[in-house]
């Protein structure tokens, strides 16, 4: 049986997180069997070591949280994170390019990172920061992600003034089709939230509240 835990990237991206915080996060991920632990690149070696021998993946963020970094720098950062133990990479797009409708710039931005990530044997999730875009720009960013060969599109950084909505996840799923991954991130705080996003088409959930979500599922299953 597929559980909610298998959808969750257990996440801590606060810039002042401590080693104790990160190790606690990894410990929770092992206990509840989350899909991955998602951290800033500086913590990738710590998480990869803590998760060694488990099925929980190590995930990191690139060009985070603004996306306003040169594509080749994002690619280098991604490659280094993979060398350090990351198996999944969540990159932030050039948000300004999406807002001005520059498809070529978006495809170049994403495909440059795709090449580095896939060369390292990892998968790439593309954060389009939905709270900053209108629907046309969201569609464009998703289409560019498909064209560039990314593995997932993702709603939000959690630092951009808003998180995932069911409407955005529905739009993203409609745009990328049935095969590409869609990750809802930001505002996934309860079992009910998680279920709503999955019903809308999400195949992955980014959450710092993973324990509460899973315990909500376990509690509801007891009745």
Automatic annotation (TrEMBL):
Enzyme class: lyase
Entry keyword DNA-binding: no
Lineage, highest ranks first: Bacteria, Bacillati, Actinomycetota, Actinomycetes, Micrococcales
Function summary: Catalyzes a reversible aldol reaction between acetaldehyde and D-glyceraldehyde 3-phosphate to generate 2-deoxy-D-ribose 5-phosphate.
Active site: 90 (proton donor/acceptor), 154 (schiff-base intermediate with acetaldehyde), 183 (proton donor/acceptor)
InterPro entries in UniProt: Aldolase_TIM, DeoC, DeoC/FbaB/LacD_aldolase, DeoC_typeI
Native species: Zhihengliuella flava
An example Gene Ontology biological process: carbohydrate catabolic process
Keywords: Cytoplasm, Lyase, Schiff base
Name of a matching Pfam family: DeoC
An MF annotation (GO) of this entry: deoxyribose-phosphate aldolase activity
Protein name: Deoxyribose-phosphate aldolase
HAMAP family: DeoC_type1
Known catalytic reactions: 2-deoxy-D-ribose 5-phosphate = D-glyceraldehyde 3-phosphate + acetaldehyde
Pathway(s) annotated for this protein in UniProt: Carbohydrate degradation; 2-deoxy-D-ribose 1-phosphate degradation; D-glyceraldehyde 3-phosphate and acetaldehyde from 2-deoxy-alpha-D-ribose 1-phosphate: step 2/2
Family: Belongs to the DeoC/FbaB aldolase family. DeoC type 1 subfamily.
Lyase in keyword set: yes
